[in-house]
Amino acid sequence: MDKLSFNEGLLQFLRQSPTPFHAVQTMQSNLQAAGFELLNEEDTWHLESGKRYIVQRNGSSIIAFTLGQGDPAESGFRMTGAHTDSPCLKLKPNAVMPVNPQTGSALQFAVEVYGGALLAPWFDRDLSLAGRVEYRLADGSLGSALLDWQRPLATVPSLAIHLDREANSNRTINAQKDMPPVLALESSAADFDFNGWLVEALQTQQGITHVAGVLAHELYFYDTQAPAMVGLHNDFIASARLDNLLSCYVGQQSLLADQQANADGFNLLVCNDHEEVGSNSACGAQGPFLRSVLARISARLSSGDAAECVERMIRRSLFLSIDNAHGLHPNFADKHDGNHGPLLNQGPVIKVNANQRYATNSRTTALFRSLCEQAEVPVQTFVVRSDMGCGSTIGPITASGLGVETIDIGVPTYGMHSIRELAGSDDAWYLARVVQRFYQS
Ligand code: ZN
Ligand 1 center to residue 83 CA distance, Å? Predict the structure, then answer.
């Protein structure tokens, strides 16, 4: 794995993953191609030492793990975690907006803002739509399929500056009124057959015929501009969803690289949905997904008291929570603490917060720093300004739910939660080398 091919793979992964459902589908097929066996949560698991497995929940969260030899209660798991979701515009259930008599020909879809999106960059983009659709077939059975239109379908046009002279000095954005994308100019937008349009897409995109009706959908708008290397010397990676698909990819590639190195440790990667909305769901980091998988592994591979074995296993484990950090923006350097502003392309960032918004402590910092030394990778530290609030991530949630020792790390980025974020082209690669080292430790 060299840096160039790593970054090309990252760009491809971002392209293939416009929604959490697609990200999990992409990871599942990548891992299955490398010999990971798919488990269903509903089934009895027959786990074998030395083998590798994946399991997903809701189609939007995934856990991949490898089993070493012996009792995991004695060795614990080396775990990494990231999240599959990113802030965006999500279609409302009744998607077609009532016609405004003044603009009767404009077909618009109603949207909710998912997560803490930076809304201004969503204007004047060529947007497409992707996600999951539930349907009923003519024989009465229910089905579910992923759709991705892949081509520009919609746009949110800006208001001309002539009609808002304060646009550059005093602009506010009303999510309900200003954000509905425009899709078409129909003679009668009110008559647009939304469900018929989805039925047609199920047939043309997935070859699903005899659909009697669409019952529900979870569809998200996304920017069709492809991820790209940017800069005089390709210093940057520009893309939507770098937060946090970049980290999912780092975890996936590190786990796969470890397998190629023929290590046979107890390693695990968890990528949760719903981090951007608080993680509080059945498949989110605050839900029971990870603990449930760990308990089932322990029940199969440990021989002692089940409840005690799983706790011993967790206490011998370490969890690297990977999520992007705020890089020091050259135009806004005063937004950072002068001594703790991470620079792009200067290596992964250890995120520290006295108030436990990050789960990092001095012990886990020391372990991570020594891994960076072994991988010959530079490392930096982020602490928010003392007069500003601090973000958070799955690290503290997983640490408090599981009781596992945790460190919060990630690569520095600009424009977090924009529709197009920017990372350094060295940092994801640096971090992957460290995580690979961790999995082999
Ligand atoms: Zn994030």
Answer: 7
